[in-house]
## 1
Amino acid sequence: RTPWTFALATLPLGLSFASYYTGATSRIGDIVPLDRQGAMLGFLDSSRGLGGVLGPLLGGTIVSFAGYPAMFVTMAVIAAVACTIVFVGLGPSAASAQRAVDRSSTSPKD
């Protein structure tokens, strides 16, 4: 329980937040038309802020009524639903689709 332990424990959290933001903004650049990208980036940042407020509020409420295990289970279910929505709802980006077309047109035909 030293400051170094805390720093090592929070390092993966910081890396995941950085990766999330980079990936999300890249995805917006890939799939959103140029004239709407500013609005979508604003929506992304607003959603992050709202989640930063509502997440701890919801977690604290669950802990006070049902304890920590219930809070972790609830948050895991919410994360699983969000992941399912992302993986099912989003198709390939325009950039990855174009790369697939480029690969198929340059590969030798048998």
Note: The chain is about 85% helix and 0% strand.
## 2
Amino acid sequence: AVRVDLAPYFYSHLAQFAACSAVADVRAVGLMAAIELVAPAETPASLSGVLGAKFRSLCGEVGLIVRAEGNTIMIAPPLICTRSDIDRIAERLESAFGSLTRILRAQRTA
């Protein structure tokens, strides 16, 4: 059921974040996913190297546990998750991406 139902559902939610200016790539195999972050060109160097850690913190603030390796975010919900769990994960990611976008905009104007 995971491979046929939940994995495509999970990826369809994650794929929407590819449109974010701070996202270079979204990839997944089953319920293991990675979102590669990239700083827009005008982002100060002091922030571009720590986007992953910053995004991990923003996810934690909204109750989502993710792993950051450099500027790549790994997400791996439990295999027993449901569609509603995936919906909540996507909502929390959307909130964290909103916060990251605001931070990047503020850095550009500072």
Note: The two ends are 49 Å apart (CA to CA).
## 3
Amino acid sequence: IDHTTYQVVFLRTGRNYFGTLSGLGKEYALLQDGFSLQPTTEDQANTENDTDNSVPFQLETLKSQMFQPENDLYIRGEDIISWQNLDQDSRVVGAIREYFAKKTETEGKKD
């Protein structure tokens, strides 16, 4: 695992999660700062992305789900099909960095 970047984890359920992965080979792996891709409507995709190569998905934190879990996800090791390091230039990595930059900026304004 390259700890300088984020990973994508593919699960038996068909779900994929993005974040910082650790604990592979243990009973439970830990995905910190977890995100998932959520489908968007075509109108949302067109207004949120100024590029012609927009995709009908948006990155969403785990914490933003209705029941507001912590943003860390413990995954049973046997449920992980595979995982990959994400390239620093990945659109997903860019979106995660943008999320944390905005979060830091917002928290700084509260002080």
Note: Residues 12 and 86 are 20 Å apart (CA to CA).
## 4
Amino acid sequence: RWFFVRVVVVVFGFAVPIAIANYAAKERLSVAFEFGKILNRIKLVIGDYLIAYDVLIVLGFVLCIVSMIPLIGWILGIFAIFYLTLVAVYYFGTLYREVLSNIFYFFAPFF
């Protein structure tokens, strides 16, 4: 039972950054739930997407370890989580922009 929950969390967690970027770009909530298009966009940049995801997981793990240090770690953790969030948004925003340029480049002859 817990294995299924973990698999669902990983699959949806993997797609959420592109879904949010899709919603932000189109300004319609319905586009955040177009799973086929989201997965196709992830496939276009899967290598960079995995690297960004892995880097953020490692940095998050390091941040958890640092946050265990009393007082100094707590203060550092507050600023580090803010910075880590900015880095994550930048990574996935850049990947989304790359996806859009790849889609335009692929379909450019048809425009």
Note: The CA atoms of residues 32 and 66 lie 34 Å apart.
